[in-house]
Structure prediction request, 589 residues.
Amino acid sequence: MQKATHASGLGLDFHLKKQYPNFALDIEFQMGRELVVLLAPSGAGKSLTLNLLAGIVKPDCGYIRLFGEELYNSQKGISVPMRKRRIGYVFQDYALFPHKTVWENIAYGIRDKSKRHKIVAELLGMLDLTAKSQSYPSQLSGGQKQRIALARALAAEPRLLLMDEPLSALDEAIRERLQYDLMRLRENFDVPMIYVTHSHAEAFTLADRIIILDAGKVVESGAKNDIFYRPQKRQTAEFLGVRNIFPCVVKAIIPPDEMRVILLNAEICTPLYTRFKPKDKVYLGINPIDVRLVVSDNPKENLFDAMVVDILPMEKSHRIRVKLLYQEHYITMDLERLACEKWKVKIGQIIQFSLRKEGIFLCD
Amino acid sequence: MLNTMSDIKLFPLYLTFKVASLATILSCTVGLSLAWILARKQFFGKSFVDVLIMQPLVIPPTVLGYYLLVLLGRASPVGKFLEQAFGLTLVFTWKGAVIAANVASMPLFIRPAKAAIENIDANLENAARLLGKSEWEVFCTITLPLAKRGILAGTILAFARAMGDFGTTLMVAGNIPGKTQTLSLAIYDAVQADNIGLANILVLIMTGFSIAVLWTVNRCTHGRY
Prediction:
Protein backbone atom coordinates (compact mmCIF):
# COMPACT_ATOMS: atom_id res chain seq x y z
CA MET A 1 0.00 0.00 0.00
CA GLN A 2 1.25 3.41 -0.94
CA LYS A 3 2.27 5.68 1.93
CA ALA A 4 1.30 9.31 2.04
CA THR A 5 4.39 11.36 1.40
CA HIS A 6 2.92 14.79 1.86
CA ALA A 7 4.80 17.44 3.77
CA SER A 8 1.94 17.73 6.27
CA GLY A 9 2.51 14.14 7.37
CA LEU A 10 0.12 11.34 8.08
CA GLY A 11 -3.44 12.42 8.83
CA LEU A 12 -5.54 9.31 8.55
CA ASP A 13 -4.31 5.75 8.69
CA PHE A 14 -6.74 2.84 8.71
CA HIS A 15 -7.20 -0.83 8.03
CA LEU A 16 -10.76 -2.09 8.38
CA LYS A 17 -12.52 -5.37 7.80
CA LYS A 18 -16.22 -6.07 7.75
CA GLN A 19 -17.84 -9.35 6.78
CA TYR A 20 -21.44 -9.81 5.63
CA PRO A 21 -22.99 -13.05 4.34
CA ASN A 22 -22.62 -11.95 0.70
CA PHE A 23 -19.98 -9.27 0.91
CA ALA A 24 -16.62 -8.70 2.56
CA LEU A 25 -14.79 -5.40 2.87
CA ASP A 26 -11.08 -5.24 3.55
CA ILE A 27 -9.57 -1.79 3.03
CA GLU A 28 -6.29 -0.27 4.13
CA PHE A 29 -5.08 3.25 3.37
CA GLN A 30 -2.97 6.12 4.61
CA MET A 31 -3.42 9.76 3.72
CA GLY A 32 -2.30 13.25 4.66
CA ARG A 33 -4.17 16.56 4.48
CA GLU A 34 -5.37 15.87 0.97
CA LEU A 35 -8.55 15.04 -0.89
CA VAL A 36 -8.74 11.35 -1.68
CA VAL A 37 -11.51 10.15 -3.97
CA LEU A 38 -12.87 6.68 -3.36
CA LEU A 39 -13.91 5.76 -6.88
CA ALA A 40 -15.91 2.61 -7.38
CA PRO A 41 -19.01 1.14 -9.00
CA SER A 42 -22.20 0.74 -6.96
CA GLY A 43 -22.06 -1.95 -4.29
CA ALA A 44 -18.27 -1.94 -4.05
CA GLY A 45 -18.26 -0.82 -0.41
CA LYS A 46 -17.66 2.94 -0.78
CA SER A 47 -20.37 4.14 1.59
CA LEU A 48 -19.66 1.28 3.98
CA THR A 49 -16.04 2.45 4.23
CA LEU A 50 -17.21 5.94 5.24
CA ASN A 51 -19.71 4.50 7.74
CA LEU A 52 -16.98 2.38 9.32
CA LEU A 53 -14.67 5.39 9.61
CA ALA A 54 -17.41 7.56 11.11
CA GLY A 55 -18.44 4.86 13.59
CA ILE A 56 -21.97 4.44 12.19
CA VAL A 57 -21.16 0.78 11.44
CA LYS A 58 -18.87 -1.22 13.72
CA PRO A 59 -15.99 -2.97 11.96
CA ASP A 60 -15.24 -6.65 12.63
CA CYS A 61 -11.60 -5.84 13.16
CA GLY A 62 -8.86 -3.37 12.28
CA TYR A 63 -7.79 0.09 13.37
CA ILE A 64 -8.36 3.78 12.62
CA ARG A 65 -5.76 6.39 13.55
CA LEU A 66 -6.46 10.07 12.99
CA PHE A 67 -3.49 12.37 13.52
CA GLY A 68 -1.98 9.74 15.80
CA GLU A 69 -5.07 9.28 17.97
CA GLU A 70 -6.62 5.85 17.91
CA LEU A 71 -10.33 6.08 17.12
CA TYR A 72 -10.75 2.34 16.77
CA ASN A 73 -8.59 -0.65 17.52
CA SER A 74 -10.17 -4.08 17.76
CA GLN A 75 -7.12 -5.62 19.45
CA LYS A 76 -6.94 -2.98 22.17
CA GLY A 77 -10.73 -2.81 22.50
CA ILE A 78 -10.79 0.90 21.60
CA SER A 79 -13.86 2.36 19.91
CA VAL A 80 -14.28 6.12 20.30
CA PRO A 81 -18.00 7.02 20.11
CA MET A 82 -19.20 8.94 17.06
CA ARG A 83 -19.68 12.21 18.94
CA LYS A 84 -16.06 12.28 20.08
CA ARG A 85 -14.46 11.43 16.73
CA ARG A 86 -14.79 14.96 15.32
CA ILE A 87 -15.46 13.65 11.84
CA GLY A 88 -17.53 15.71 9.41
CA TYR A 89 -19.90 13.72 7.24
CA VAL A 90 -21.77 15.01 4.20
CA PHE A 91 -24.54 12.50 3.49
CA GLN A 92 -25.75 11.65 0.01
CA ASP A 93 -29.30 12.68 0.94
CA TYR A 94 -27.99 15.77 2.82
CA ALA A 95 -29.53 14.70 6.20
CA LEU A 96 -30.38 18.31 7.07
CA PHE A 97 -32.54 18.68 10.17
CA PRO A 98 -35.97 19.50 8.68
CA HIS A 99 -37.24 21.27 11.82
CA LYS A 100 -34.30 23.66 12.03
CA THR A 101 -33.52 26.68 9.89
CA VAL A 102 -30.42 26.91 7.73
CA TRP A 103 -28.75 28.99 10.46
CA GLU A 104 -29.65 26.48 13.18
CA ASN A 105 -28.49 23.57 11.04
CA ILE A 106 -25.05 25.09 10.51
CA ALA A 107 -24.72 26.27 14.12
CA TYR A 108 -25.81 22.89 15.55
CA GLY A 109 -22.34 21.37 15.81
CA ILE A 110 -20.33 24.47 16.77
CA ARG A 111 -18.86 23.76 20.20
CA ASP A 112 -17.85 27.30 21.15
CA LYS A 113 -21.18 29.10 21.42
CA SER A 114 -19.55 32.56 21.41
CA LYS A 115 -18.20 31.88 17.90
CA ARG A 116 -21.48 30.65 16.45
CA HIS A 117 -22.60 33.85 14.78
CA LYS A 118 -19.18 34.55 13.27
CA ILE A 119 -18.63 31.01 11.90
CA VAL A 120 -22.14 30.66 10.46
CA ALA A 121 -21.99 34.10 8.86
CA GLU A 122 -18.61 33.33 7.31
CA LEU A 123 -19.73 30.01 5.87
CA LEU A 124 -23.02 31.42 4.57
CA GLY A 125 -21.09 34.25 2.91
CA MET A 126 -18.53 31.88 1.41
CA LEU A 127 -21.31 29.77 -0.09
CA ASP A 128 -23.42 32.75 -1.15
CA LEU A 129 -26.38 31.64 1.02
CA THR A 130 -26.68 34.51 3.51
CA ALA A 131 -30.18 35.33 2.23
CA LYS A 132 -31.35 31.81 3.07
CA SER A 133 -30.25 31.75 6.71
CA GLN A 134 -33.82 31.73 8.08
CA SER A 135 -35.22 29.29 5.50
CA TYR A 136 -36.10 25.70 6.32
CA PRO A 137 -34.50 22.86 4.31
CA SER A 138 -37.81 22.12 2.58
CA GLN A 139 -37.65 25.61 1.06
CA LEU A 140 -34.23 25.03 -0.55
CA SER A 141 -33.16 23.54 -3.89
CA GLY A 142 -31.03 20.39 -4.03
CA GLY A 143 -27.84 22.35 -4.67
CA GLN A 144 -28.53 24.73 -1.79
CA LYS A 145 -29.25 21.81 0.56
CA GLN A 146 -25.96 20.20 -0.38
CA ARG A 147 -24.04 23.42 0.26
CA ILE A 148 -25.71 23.74 3.69
CA ALA A 149 -24.82 20.12 4.47
CA LEU A 150 -21.20 20.90 3.58
CA ALA A 151 -21.24 24.10 5.66
CA ARG A 152 -22.75 22.25 8.64
CA ALA A 153 -20.05 19.58 8.52
CA LEU A 154 -17.25 22.17 8.26
CA ALA A 155 -18.68 24.49 10.94
CA ALA A 156 -17.99 21.84 13.59
CA GLU A 157 -14.27 22.06 12.70
CA PRO A 158 -13.81 18.37 11.90
CA ARG A 159 -10.42 16.69 11.79
CA LEU A 160 -11.57 14.56 8.86
CA LEU A 161 -14.27 15.24 6.29
CA LEU A 162 -16.19 12.40 4.65
CA MET A 163 -18.42 13.06 1.65
CA ASP A 164 -20.72 10.34 0.33
CA GLU A 165 -21.58 11.03 -3.32
CA PRO A 166 -22.55 14.59 -2.42
CA LEU A 167 -23.27 15.67 -5.99
CA SER A 168 -24.95 12.56 -7.38
CA ALA A 169 -28.51 13.84 -7.13
CA LEU A 170 -27.80 17.21 -8.74
CA ASP A 171 -27.89 18.34 -12.35
CA GLU A 172 -24.73 19.22 -14.20
CA ALA A 173 -24.67 23.02 -13.87
CA ILE A 174 -25.20 22.84 -10.10
CA ARG A 175 -22.64 20.08 -9.83
CA GLU A 176 -20.07 22.29 -11.52
CA ARG A 177 -20.91 25.19 -9.18
CA LEU A 178 -20.49 22.94 -6.14
CA GLN A 179 -17.16 21.69 -7.40
CA TYR A 180 -15.95 25.30 -7.50
CA ASP A 181 -17.30 25.80 -3.96
CA LEU A 182 -15.60 22.68 -2.71
CA MET A 183 -12.26 23.66 -4.21
CA ARG A 184 -12.56 27.11 -2.63
CA LEU A 185 -13.50 25.66 0.77
CA ARG A 186 -10.44 23.41 0.68
CA GLU A 187 -8.24 26.49 0.86
CA ASN A 188 -9.81 27.37 4.23
CA PHE A 189 -10.24 23.90 5.71
CA ASP A 190 -6.98 22.02 5.53
CA VAL A 191 -8.11 18.60 6.75
CA PRO A 192 -7.98 15.13 5.20
CA MET A 193 -11.05 14.64 3.01
CA ILE A 194 -12.46 11.43 1.58
CA TYR A 195 -14.87 11.91 -1.28
CA VAL A 196 -16.90 8.94 -2.49
CA THR A 197 -18.19 8.87 -6.05
CA HIS A 198 -18.72 6.66 -9.07
CA SER A 199 -18.19 9.60 -11.44
CA HIS A 200 -14.83 9.60 -13.22
CA ALA A 201 -15.23 13.28 -14.10
CA GLU A 202 -15.78 14.33 -10.46
CA ALA A 203 -12.85 12.18 -9.36
CA PHE A 204 -10.55 13.78 -11.90
CA THR A 205 -11.64 17.32 -11.05
CA LEU A 206 -11.41 17.08 -7.28
CA ALA A 207 -8.90 14.40 -6.32
CA ASP A 208 -5.33 14.68 -5.18
CA ARG A 209 -5.24 10.93 -4.99
CA ILE A 210 -7.65 8.21 -6.01
CA ILE A 211 -8.50 4.81 -4.55
CA ILE A 212 -10.20 2.40 -6.94
CA LEU A 213 -12.36 -0.01 -4.98
CA ASP A 214 -14.08 -3.11 -6.29
CA ALA A 215 -16.01 -5.81 -4.41
CA GLY A 216 -14.72 -4.54 -1.07
CA LYS A 217 -11.03 -4.54 -2.04
CA VAL A 218 -8.63 -1.81 -3.13
CA VAL A 219 -7.79 -2.47 -6.77
CA GLU A 220 -5.31 0.36 -7.08
CA SER A 221 -4.50 3.68 -5.47
CA GLY A 222 -2.29 6.51 -6.52
CA ALA A 223 -1.97 10.08 -7.73
CA LYS A 224 -4.79 11.25 -9.99
CA ASN A 225 -2.70 11.44 -13.17
CA ASP A 226 -1.14 8.02 -12.59
CA ILE A 227 -4.53 6.41 -12.11
CA PHE A 228 -6.11 8.05 -15.14
CA TYR A 229 -3.17 8.05 -17.57
CA ARG A 230 -0.88 5.28 -16.33
CA PRO A 231 -3.02 2.73 -14.44
CA GLN A 232 -1.04 -0.23 -13.20
CA LYS A 233 -3.80 -2.79 -13.52
CA ARG A 234 -6.01 -3.81 -16.40
CA GLN A 235 -9.04 -3.84 -14.03
CA THR A 236 -8.45 -0.14 -13.28
CA ALA A 237 -8.17 0.73 -16.96
CA GLU A 238 -11.39 -1.16 -17.73
CA PHE A 239 -13.22 0.51 -14.84
CA LEU A 240 -12.07 3.93 -16.05
CA GLY A 241 -13.58 3.17 -19.44
CA VAL A 242 -10.42 2.72 -21.52
CA ARG A 243 -11.82 1.20 -24.73
CA ASN A 244 -8.63 -0.20 -26.24
CA ILE A 245 -6.83 -2.79 -24.09
CA PHE A 246 -4.80 -5.54 -25.77
CA PRO A 247 -2.42 -8.23 -24.56
CA CYS A 248 1.13 -7.76 -25.81
CA VAL A 249 4.69 -8.86 -25.07
CA VAL A 250 7.62 -6.64 -24.16
CA LYS A 251 10.31 -6.94 -26.82
CA ALA A 252 13.04 -4.53 -25.81
CA ILE A 253 13.93 -1.55 -23.67
CA ILE A 254 15.39 1.33 -25.68
CA PRO A 255 17.22 3.77 -23.40
CA PRO A 256 16.67 6.40 -22.28
CA ASP A 257 12.88 6.48 -22.33
CA GLU A 258 11.32 4.02 -24.77
CA MET A 259 10.18 0.45 -24.97
CA ARG A 260 9.13 -1.79 -27.83
CA VAL A 261 6.26 -4.22 -27.48
CA ILE A 262 4.76 -6.69 -29.93
CA LEU A 263 1.07 -5.92 -30.42
CA LEU A 264 -1.02 -7.78 -32.98
CA ASN A 265 2.12 -8.85 -34.88
CA ALA A 266 3.35 -5.27 -35.09
CA GLU A 267 6.17 -3.61 -33.17
CA ILE A 268 4.90 -0.69 -31.14
CA CYS A 269 6.92 2.09 -29.57
CA THR A 270 5.76 2.96 -26.00
CA PRO A 271 6.94 5.09 -23.08
CA LEU A 272 9.43 3.36 -20.75
CA TYR A 273 8.05 1.29 -17.84
CA THR A 274 10.96 0.22 -15.68
CA ARG A 275 8.96 -2.44 -13.85
CA PHE A 276 8.67 -4.51 -17.04
CA LYS A 277 11.46 -6.41 -18.77
CA PRO A 278 11.72 -8.14 -22.15
CA LYS A 279 9.39 -11.15 -22.69
CA ASP A 280 6.96 -9.93 -19.98
CA LYS A 281 3.33 -10.43 -20.94
CA VAL A 282 1.53 -7.16 -20.30
CA TYR A 283 -1.53 -5.23 -21.42
CA LEU A 284 -1.33 -2.19 -23.65
CA GLY A 285 -4.01 0.44 -23.24
CA ILE A 286 -4.78 3.58 -25.19
CA ASN A 287 -7.70 5.98 -25.02
CA PRO A 288 -9.68 6.65 -28.23
CA ILE A 289 -8.49 10.27 -28.20
CA ASP A 290 -4.87 9.07 -28.63
CA VAL A 291 -5.66 6.96 -31.69
CA ARG A 292 -5.02 9.32 -34.63
CA LEU A 293 -6.16 9.22 -38.22
CA VAL A 294 -3.11 9.37 -40.53
CA VAL A 295 -3.63 11.81 -43.37
CA SER A 296 -0.03 12.78 -44.13
CA ASP A 297 3.36 11.11 -43.99
CA ASN A 298 4.09 12.59 -40.57
CA PRO A 299 3.68 9.69 -38.13
CA LYS A 300 6.29 7.08 -38.91
CA GLU A 301 5.59 4.62 -36.10
CA ASN A 302 2.77 2.67 -34.49
CA LEU A 303 0.90 2.60 -37.80
CA PHE A 304 -2.00 0.27 -38.66
CA ASP A 305 -4.34 -0.17 -41.62
CA ALA A 306 -7.98 -0.73 -40.81
CA MET A 307 -11.53 -0.55 -42.12
CA VAL A 308 -14.18 1.71 -40.59
CA VAL A 309 -17.03 -0.47 -39.25
CA ASP A 310 -19.05 1.91 -37.05
CA ILE A 311 -19.40 5.66 -36.62
CA LEU A 312 -21.09 7.02 -33.53
CA PRO A 313 -21.76 10.76 -33.92
CA MET A 314 -21.16 12.61 -30.65
CA GLU A 315 -21.43 16.23 -29.59
CA LYS A 316 -17.87 17.35 -30.29
CA SER A 317 -16.21 14.36 -31.88
CA HIS A 318 -17.25 11.17 -33.59
CA ARG A 319 -16.42 7.83 -32.04
CA ILE A 320 -15.22 5.49 -34.76
CA ARG A 321 -14.72 1.74 -34.48
CA VAL A 322 -12.27 0.27 -36.96
CA LYS A 323 -11.31 -3.35 -37.74
CA LEU A 324 -7.65 -4.07 -38.40
CA LEU A 325 -7.08 -5.41 -41.89
CA TYR A 326 -6.58 -9.21 -42.05
CA GLN A 327 -7.21 -9.53 -38.28
CA GLU A 328 -10.17 -9.95 -35.95
CA HIS A 329 -9.24 -7.02 -33.74
CA TYR A 330 -11.13 -3.78 -33.29
CA ILE A 331 -9.90 -0.39 -32.10
CA THR A 332 -11.97 2.61 -31.05
CA MET A 333 -10.83 6.11 -31.95
CA ASP A 334 -12.24 9.60 -31.47
CA LEU A 335 -12.09 11.97 -34.42
CA GLU A 336 -13.15 15.60 -34.29
CA ARG A 337 -16.42 16.21 -36.04
CA LEU A 338 -14.91 18.72 -38.48
CA ALA A 339 -11.98 16.42 -39.31
CA CYS A 340 -14.45 13.60 -39.91
CA GLU A 341 -16.33 15.77 -42.40
CA LYS A 342 -13.15 17.09 -44.03
CA TRP A 343 -11.71 13.62 -44.70
CA LYS A 344 -15.14 12.20 -45.53
CA VAL A 345 -14.76 9.22 -43.19
CA LYS A 346 -17.50 6.67 -43.84
CA ILE A 347 -18.30 3.06 -43.02
CA GLY A 348 -16.38 0.56 -45.17
CA GLN A 349 -13.55 3.02 -45.88
CA ILE A 350 -9.95 1.81 -45.52
CA ILE A 351 -7.94 4.19 -43.33
CA GLN A 352 -4.56 4.32 -41.65
CA PHE A 353 -4.22 5.23 -37.99
CA SER A 354 -1.41 5.60 -35.50
CA LEU A 355 -1.20 5.04 -31.74
CA ARG A 356 0.25 8.17 -30.17
CA LYS A 357 3.23 7.00 -28.13
CA GLU A 358 2.62 9.37 -25.21
CA GLY A 359 -0.96 8.12 -24.92
CA ILE A 360 0.03 4.48 -24.54
CA PHE A 361 0.24 2.85 -21.11
CA LEU A 362 1.26 -0.64 -20.10
CA CYS A 363 -0.32 -2.49 -17.18
CA ASP A 364 -0.48 -5.89 -15.52
CA MET B 1 -84.17 17.05 34.97
CA LEU B 2 -83.41 18.96 38.14
CA ASN B 3 -83.33 15.70 40.06
CA THR B 4 -80.99 14.23 37.47
CA MET B 5 -78.68 17.24 37.66
CA SER B 6 -78.49 16.93 41.42
CA ASP B 7 -77.62 13.25 40.98
CA ILE B 8 -74.40 14.15 39.16
CA LYS B 9 -71.56 13.80 41.55
CA LEU B 10 -68.36 15.53 40.69
CA PHE B 11 -66.13 12.89 42.30
CA PRO B 12 -66.19 10.36 39.37
CA LEU B 13 -65.39 13.21 36.95
CA TYR B 14 -62.51 14.43 39.13
CA LEU B 15 -61.21 10.88 39.74
CA THR B 16 -61.42 10.01 36.05
CA PHE B 17 -59.29 13.02 35.07
CA LYS B 18 -56.85 12.37 37.92
CA VAL B 19 -56.48 8.66 37.08
CA ALA B 20 -56.28 9.28 33.31
CA SER B 21 -53.74 12.11 33.72
CA LEU B 22 -51.44 10.08 35.99
CA ALA B 23 -51.80 6.97 33.80
CA THR B 24 -50.90 9.06 30.74
CA ILE B 25 -47.87 10.61 32.45
CA LEU B 26 -46.72 7.06 33.22
CA SER B 27 -47.35 6.06 29.60
CA CYS B 28 -45.37 9.01 28.31
CA THR B 29 -42.33 8.30 30.44
CA VAL B 30 -42.18 4.50 30.47
CA GLY B 31 -43.85 4.19 27.05
CA LEU B 32 -41.55 6.67 25.32
CA SER B 33 -38.48 4.80 26.55
CA LEU B 34 -39.99 1.51 25.36
CA ALA B 35 -41.00 3.03 22.00
CA TRP B 36 -37.45 4.35 21.47
CA ILE B 37 -35.87 1.02 22.43
CA LEU B 38 -38.24 -0.92 20.16
CA ALA B 39 -37.70 1.51 17.26
CA ARG B 40 -33.94 1.93 17.48
CA LYS B 41 -32.33 -1.01 19.28
CA GLN B 42 -31.79 -4.60 18.21
CA PHE B 43 -31.81 -7.24 20.95
CA PHE B 44 -32.65 -10.89 21.46
CA GLY B 45 -36.38 -11.45 22.01
CA LYS B 46 -37.36 -8.03 20.63
CA SER B 47 -40.38 -9.36 18.72
CA PHE B 48 -41.58 -11.18 21.86
CA VAL B 49 -41.33 -7.97 23.91
CA ASP B 50 -43.19 -6.16 21.12
CA VAL B 51 -46.02 -8.71 21.20
CA LEU B 52 -46.15 -8.63 25.01
CA ILE B 53 -46.45 -4.84 25.13
CA MET B 54 -49.28 -4.87 22.59
CA GLN B 55 -51.22 -7.60 24.45
CA PRO B 56 -53.55 -5.20 26.33
CA LEU B 57 -54.97 -4.18 22.95
CA VAL B 58 -56.23 -7.68 22.18
CA ILE B 59 -56.88 -9.58 25.38
CA PRO B 60 -60.21 -8.97 27.16
CA PRO B 61 -59.98 -6.19 29.81
CA THR B 62 -61.22 -8.54 32.53
CA VAL B 63 -58.42 -10.99 31.74
CA LEU B 64 -55.90 -8.16 31.86
CA GLY B 65 -57.45 -6.98 35.14
CA TYR B 66 -57.20 -10.48 36.55
CA TYR B 67 -53.50 -10.69 35.67
CA LEU B 68 -52.89 -7.35 37.40
CA LEU B 69 -54.89 -8.46 40.42
CA VAL B 70 -52.80 -11.59 40.73
CA LEU B 71 -49.56 -9.69 40.12
CA LEU B 72 -50.22 -6.72 42.43
CA GLY B 73 -52.55 -8.24 45.06
CA ARG B 74 -51.54 -8.00 48.70
CA ALA B 75 -50.66 -11.69 48.76
CA SER B 76 -48.39 -11.49 45.71
CA PRO B 77 -44.62 -10.95 46.05
CA VAL B 78 -44.85 -7.59 44.24
CA GLY B 79 -47.82 -6.48 46.37
CA LYS B 80 -46.05 -7.53 49.57
CA PHE B 81 -42.89 -5.72 48.57
CA LEU B 82 -44.76 -2.50 47.71
CA GLU B 83 -46.65 -2.61 51.00
CA GLN B 84 -43.63 -3.36 53.18
CA ALA B 85 -41.15 -1.04 51.41
CA PHE B 86 -43.38 1.92 50.59
CA GLY B 87 -46.60 1.28 52.51
CA LEU B 88 -48.31 1.24 49.11
CA THR B 89 -51.48 -0.77 48.51
CA LEU B 90 -52.68 -0.83 44.94
CA VAL B 91 -55.62 -3.20 44.83
CA PHE B 92 -59.02 -1.56 45.43
CA THR B 93 -57.52 1.94 45.66
CA TRP B 94 -57.42 4.81 43.16
CA LYS B 95 -53.68 4.08 42.70
CA GLY B 96 -54.66 0.65 41.43
CA ALA B 97 -57.01 2.38 38.98
CA VAL B 98 -54.03 4.40 37.72
CA ILE B 99 -52.01 1.21 37.13
CA ALA B 100 -54.99 -0.48 35.45
CA ALA B 101 -55.63 2.50 33.16
CA ASN B 102 -51.93 2.81 32.42
CA VAL B 103 -51.42 -0.82 31.43
CA ALA B 104 -54.60 -0.81 29.33
CA SER B 105 -53.72 2.42 27.52
CA MET B 106 -49.94 2.23 27.10
CA PRO B 107 -49.99 0.27 23.81
CA LEU B 108 -52.04 3.08 22.28
CA PHE B 109 -49.21 5.45 23.16
CA ILE B 110 -46.36 3.13 22.16
CA ARG B 111 -47.68 2.25 18.69
CA PRO B 112 -47.77 5.75 17.15
CA ALA B 113 -44.70 6.88 19.11
CA LYS B 114 -42.68 3.89 17.90
CA ALA B 115 -43.86 4.39 14.30
CA ALA B 116 -42.96 8.08 14.46
CA ILE B 117 -39.44 7.32 15.75
CA GLU B 118 -38.95 4.57 13.16
CA ASN B 119 -39.92 7.01 10.42
CA ILE B 120 -37.09 9.38 11.29
CA ASP B 121 -34.16 8.91 8.91
CA ALA B 122 -31.48 7.28 11.08
CA ASN B 123 -28.88 9.45 9.31
CA LEU B 124 -30.41 12.57 10.91
CA GLU B 125 -29.57 11.12 14.32
CA ASN B 126 -26.16 9.96 13.05
CA ALA B 127 -25.47 13.45 11.69
CA ALA B 128 -26.25 14.90 15.12
CA ARG B 129 -23.96 12.37 16.85
CA LEU B 130 -21.16 13.16 14.42
CA LEU B 131 -21.66 16.85 15.23
CA GLY B 132 -20.68 16.04 18.81
CA LYS B 133 -24.04 15.47 20.49
CA SER B 134 -24.65 12.86 23.21
CA GLU B 135 -27.45 10.30 22.92
CA TRP B 136 -29.60 12.39 25.27
CA GLU B 137 -28.98 15.58 23.27
CA VAL B 138 -29.75 13.72 20.02
CA PHE B 139 -32.99 12.45 21.54
CA CYS B 140 -34.06 15.86 22.83
CA THR B 141 -33.03 17.97 19.82
CA ILE B 142 -33.66 15.62 16.88
CA THR B 143 -35.72 12.52 17.74
CA LEU B 144 -38.29 14.15 20.00
CA PRO B 145 -39.09 17.21 17.83
CA LEU B 146 -39.31 15.08 14.68
CA ALA B 147 -41.50 12.43 16.34
CA LYS B 148 -43.61 14.95 18.26
CA ARG B 149 -46.75 14.48 16.14
CA GLY B 150 -46.78 10.72 16.68
CA ILE B 151 -45.99 11.16 20.36
CA LEU B 152 -48.76 13.75 20.78
CA ALA B 153 -51.26 11.56 18.95
CA GLY B 154 -50.25 8.62 21.17
CA THR B 155 -50.59 10.75 24.29
CA ILE B 156 -54.12 11.83 23.40
CA LEU B 157 -55.21 8.31 22.42
CA ALA B 158 -53.76 6.88 25.62
CA PHE B 159 -55.45 9.58 27.70
CA ALA B 160 -58.80 8.87 26.05
CA ARG B 161 -58.40 5.12 26.59
CA ALA B 162 -57.40 5.69 30.22
CA MET B 163 -60.47 7.88 30.74
CA GLY B 164 -62.81 5.29 29.34
CA ASP B 165 -61.34 2.18 30.90
CA PHE B 166 -63.93 -0.05 32.54
CA GLY B 167 -63.10 -3.74 32.78
CA THR B 168 -59.51 -3.57 33.92
CA THR B 169 -60.19 -0.79 36.45
CA LEU B 170 -63.19 -2.68 37.81
CA MET B 171 -61.06 -5.78 38.37
CA VAL B 172 -58.13 -4.01 40.00
CA ALA B 173 -59.71 -1.06 41.82
CA GLY B 174 -63.30 -2.19 42.20
CA ASN B 175 -66.31 0.12 41.98
CA ILE B 176 -66.36 1.91 45.31
CA PRO B 177 -68.42 5.15 45.11
CA GLY B 178 -66.44 8.12 46.37
CA LYS B 179 -63.24 6.10 46.37
CA THR B 180 -62.54 4.25 43.13
CA GLN B 181 -65.64 4.93 41.03
CA THR B 182 -64.62 6.52 37.70
CA LEU B 183 -66.97 7.99 35.10
CA SER B 184 -67.34 4.73 33.15
CA LEU B 185 -68.21 2.86 36.34
CA ALA B 186 -70.64 5.63 37.33
CA ILE B 187 -72.44 5.21 33.97
CA TYR B 188 -72.71 1.48 34.62
CA ASP B 189 -74.08 2.12 38.10
CA ALA B 190 -76.59 4.68 36.78
CA VAL B 191 -77.92 2.18 34.21
CA GLN B 192 -78.08 -0.55 36.84
CA ALA B 193 -80.06 1.81 39.09
CA ASP B 194 -82.36 2.67 36.13
CA ASN B 195 -81.29 6.33 36.34
CA ILE B 196 -81.32 6.76 32.53
CA GLY B 197 -81.24 10.58 32.73
CA LEU B 198 -77.97 10.55 34.64
CA ALA B 199 -76.57 7.86 32.35
CA ASN B 200 -77.45 9.99 29.30
CA ILE B 201 -75.65 13.05 30.65
CA LEU B 202 -72.53 11.07 31.60
CA VAL B 203 -72.57 9.31 28.23
CA LEU B 204 -72.83 12.69 26.49
CA ILE B 205 -69.81 13.98 28.40
CA MET B 206 -67.77 10.93 27.37
CA THR B 207 -68.94 11.11 23.73
CA GLY B 208 -68.12 14.79 23.44
CA PHE B 209 -64.73 14.12 24.89
CA SER B 210 -64.09 11.24 22.43
CA ILE B 211 -64.98 13.40 19.43
CA ALA B 212 -62.69 16.17 20.68
CA VAL B 213 -59.88 13.62 21.08
CA LEU B 214 -60.17 12.22 17.55
CA TRP B 215 -60.36 15.71 16.07
CA THR B 216 -57.20 16.72 17.95
CA VAL B 217 -55.37 13.53 16.91
CA ASN B 218 -56.21 14.22 13.28
CA ARG B 219 -54.90 17.78 13.61
CA CYS B 220 -51.70 16.49 15.21
CA THR B 221 -50.89 13.86 12.63
CA HIS B 222 -51.06 16.19 9.63
CA GLY B 223 -47.81 18.05 9.75
CA ARG B 224 -45.55 20.35 7.87
CA TYR B 225 -42.33 18.35 7.44
User: Anything to note?
Assistant: The mean pLDDT of chain A is 89. The first strand of chain A starts at residue 12 and ends at 20. Residues 12-231 of chain A form a domain with the Rossmann fold fold (CATH 3.40.50.300).
